[in-house]
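To illustrate the input format used throughout this study, we show a single complete record. The first block contains the structure-token representation of the backbone; no residue identities are included at this stage. The design step must infer an amino acid for every position from geometry alone.
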């Protein structure tokens, strides 16, 4: 101590105190830095978990990771079921750089190493690592690398990739922060996926209830069409088809089509050999595929389909058709939930098809019952009244002296007889049941008249008398129908007629077919064309053929004995 009472310390203890103070300040700075980075981690976690829209969550995860460790570039690769990258969300590259690079990474090199071995990988310079496969043309240079897997429960959902454009390395602390962020990201992704799946299920359920209500409505319109359109909307598909069995086992007919090229594909037959649709039809089990090569179906312009789902449409335990839901190549894949929902709608499509068939059958029964009622009324009332009127007119004509008055009355009676004959033909057409495996000659001639009616001003008049359906059968029926067709076709082509009539009668052991028209007659050039065949058919059966034609019209009479025809 001096006279001025000042204090001094020895040099060595003073140096130790300064060193301790420096360490304390450095530690305080480290604590502040750690606190700042922890606050950044908390901020990043909050940014990730505050959204439930999955695409937004994925973008925020990448942006938060880049900001957290001050990286230049960041990306999140979503792993597909086959181990490749399904999505690749990047931060740091300009749209122009992305456009130059072109396709997304496929998961090779270091990206694939993180996929194959889901543990963090940290490198000072990724180009020095033997697993690096280089960059495509136009890719910006990258140095330091950090890859961290993102787990959703026990499943590796994807990987976070971070890099700098120089070799400034990532620290162990950076790795720990990104690993912690990845854990939060896994929870956020799981919540977003569950939320999205819940929304999808709610939408499918609402659509299912709506379709059920429409299906049970008395006038539901095209239930299948509305169902297929709803499936397309809910599944975000480009194409939805309902395909039914075609004429051959290797063909399916697109009964209902919605989406791309729907008008061209509707009603078309497509070959399904070795296709997804045929496999589902044969196996009776739903399937989904991620590659259009397995679908083996294309649009009318040749464009192939991409990811697809196919579900059998079952009726009474048998697959009657296939519901195909597809996207174009390069689109995202369908999920198991999508397939489950599509299978539910396929069941409803089966119910809708059965219900529409039942309604069609009921409508046909209503029509048949109505036609039967009309036939009964015509027979029980109209014919009886006409017949009574004819008898009364005949009685009046018999009481009058021969002359114009009695002739006019008798002509009226003849007209009534012709009307009764036509009404009997109408009654038969209304009431008789048609069997496609064995049409009667009456039905065949009526169908022929209707078939050719569009070429005339009115449908040809057809009348029958006698037991035509009992006598005119087999080869005789074939000849009669052939003669009637040839005669009517000639009228359509050459006669210039507005009306024609066909009469088929069985009486006195012979079959008479008479065809008339009001045209300008047949020219001589047509005399021996198809007509020679008609004459030959009559001669071979021991019958006759006559043709009268002038400017007022043409009359054809074809007559054969039926007693000479073997039973």
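Output of the design step:
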């Amino acid at each position: 101590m001096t006279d001025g009472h000042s204090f001094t310390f020895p040099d060595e203890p003073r140096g130790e105190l300064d060193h301790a103070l420096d360490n304390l300040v450095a530690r305080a700075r480290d604590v502040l830095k750690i606190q700042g980075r922890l606050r950044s981690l908390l901020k990043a976690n909050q940014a990730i978990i505050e959204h439930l829209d999955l695409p937004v969550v994925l973008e925020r995860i990448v942006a938060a990771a880049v900001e957290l460790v001050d990286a230049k570039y960041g990306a999140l690769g979503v792993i597909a079921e086959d181990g490749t990258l399904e999505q690749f969300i990047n931060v740091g590259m300009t749209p122009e750089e992305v456009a130059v690079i072109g396709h997304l990474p496929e998961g090779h090199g270091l990206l694939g190493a993180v996929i194959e071995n889901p543990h963090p990988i940290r490198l000072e310079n990724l180009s020095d690592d033997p697993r690096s496969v280089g960059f495509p043309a136009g890719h910006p240079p990258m140095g330091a690398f950090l890859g961290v897997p993102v787990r959703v429960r026990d499943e590796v959902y994807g990987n976070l990739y971070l890099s700098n454009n120089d070799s400034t390395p990532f620290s162990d602390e950076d790795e720990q922060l990104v690993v912690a962020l990845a854990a939060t990201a896994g929870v956020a992704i799981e919540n977003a996926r569950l939320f999205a799946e819940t929304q999808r299920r709610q939408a499918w359920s609402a659509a299912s209830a709506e379709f059920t209500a429409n299906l049970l409505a008395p006038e539901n319109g095209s239930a299948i069409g509305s169902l297929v359109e709803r499936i397309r909307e809910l599944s975000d598909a480009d194409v939805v088809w309902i395909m039914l069995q075609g004429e051959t086992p290797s063909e399916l007919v697109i009964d209902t089509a919605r989406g791309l090229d729907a008008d061209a594909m509707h009603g078309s037959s497509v070959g399904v050999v070795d296709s997804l649709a045929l496999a589902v039809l044969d196996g009776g089990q739903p399937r989904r595929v991620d590659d259009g090569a397995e679908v083996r179906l294309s649009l009318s312009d040749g464009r192939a389909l991409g990811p697809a789902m196919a579900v059998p449409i079952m009726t009474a335990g048998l697959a009657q058709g296939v519901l195909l839901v597809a996207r174009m190549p390069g689109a995202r894949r369908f999920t198991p939930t999508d397939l489950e929902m599509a299978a539910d709608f396929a069941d409803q499509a089966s119910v809708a098809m059965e219900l529409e068939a039942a309604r069609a059958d009921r409508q046909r029964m209503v029509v048949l019952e109505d036609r039967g009622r009309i036939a009964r009324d015509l027979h029980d009332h109209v014919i009886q009244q006409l017949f009574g009127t004819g008898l009364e007119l005949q009685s009046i004509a018999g009481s009058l002296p021969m002359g114009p008055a009695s002739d006019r009355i008798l002509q009226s009676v003849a007209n009534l007889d012709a009307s009764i004959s036509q009404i009997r033909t109408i009654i038969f057409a209304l009431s008789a049941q048609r069997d496609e495996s064995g049409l009667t000659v009456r039905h065949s001639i009526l169908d022929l008249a209707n078939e050719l009616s569009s070429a005339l001003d009115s449908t040809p008049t057809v009348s029958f008398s006698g037991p035509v359906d009992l006598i005119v059968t087999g080869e005789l029926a074939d000849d009669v129908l052939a003669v009637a067709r040839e005669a009517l076709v000639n009228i359509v082509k050459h006669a210039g007629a507005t009306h024609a009539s066909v009469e088929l009668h069985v009486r006195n052991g012979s079959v008479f077919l008479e065809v008339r028209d009001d045209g300008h007659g047949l020219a001589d050039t047509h005399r021996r064309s198809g007509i020679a065949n008609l004459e030959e058919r009559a001669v071979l059966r021991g019958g006759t053929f006559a043709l009268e034609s002038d400017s007022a019209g043409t009359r054809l009479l074809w007559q054969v004995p039926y007693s000479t025809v073997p039973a």
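Structural context for interpreting the output: The longest helix spans residues 336-399. The longest strand covers residues 155-163.
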